[in-house]
Design a protein that fits this description.
It is a single chain. Helix 6 packs across helix 9. The chain has one domain. The chain is built from 9 helices and no strands. It is globular, with a radius of gyration of 15 Å. With about 180 residues, the protein is mainly α.
């Protein structure tokens, strides 16, 4: 039985586009830090191609970890978070819940990049929520709340604690309103 974090393929295509938007917004942070590494940009392009129906889930499942490995070529914590955002966006082809991971890592990257701006995280979340159209919000609403289902990224792993967990909880509360 598939996880409730998977979403249908049509819903994954919807949320992949939003996840790509979130990741692309912080991509310049990574590219300034590691200009010769195109893996995160490629992951975002693949997430967009998946959203358009040009790539299938099976092919993307095999490639979903490529962008995450780019984090090792980054020097700053903000650039690492930006690479992980792109990796999460690419992972949406496999499991829709990764869209919230892409958003959370983008918020983390934006906040780490601007420590002098105390509202950086809140501003990034507001930007992300403003980009949600009703069908994408409905798809994200169908995901279980963080920590309610252990069979996927919204379980008790990395996304459930610290800034990432706080961000996902904030997004889920706002989306459920």
């Amino acid at each position: 039985m598939p996880s409730s974090q998977s979403l249908s393929e049509s819903d994954r295509r919807l949320v992949a586009l939003w996840a790509a938007d979130c990741a692309e917004r912080v991509l310049p942070i990574f590219e300034a830090d590691a200009p010769d590494d195109d893996r995160p940009r490629d992951a975002i392009l693949r997430a967009r191609a998946f959203a358009r129906g040009e790539l299938d889930a099976a092919g993307e499942i095999r490639r979903r970890f490529v962008a995450g490995r780019a984090a090792s070529s980054a020097n700053s914590p903000a650039a690492v978070a930006a690479a992980r955002s792109a990796a999460q966006a690419a992972g949406v082809a496999h499991m829709g819940a990764h869209a919230l991971g892409a958003a959370a890592y983008a918020v983390k990257a934006a906040a780490l990049q601007a420590p002098e701006h105390p509202d950086a995280a809140a501003d990034e979340i507001a930007w992300q929520l403003a980009r949600l159209d009703p069908p994408t919000a409905a798809a994200l609403r169908s995901l279980p709340r963080l920590g309610e289902d252990s069979a996927g990224p919204l379980g008790a792993g990395l996304l459930a604690s610290g800034v990432l967990g706080e961000t996902i909880r904030t997004l889920q509360r706002a989306i459920r309103v």
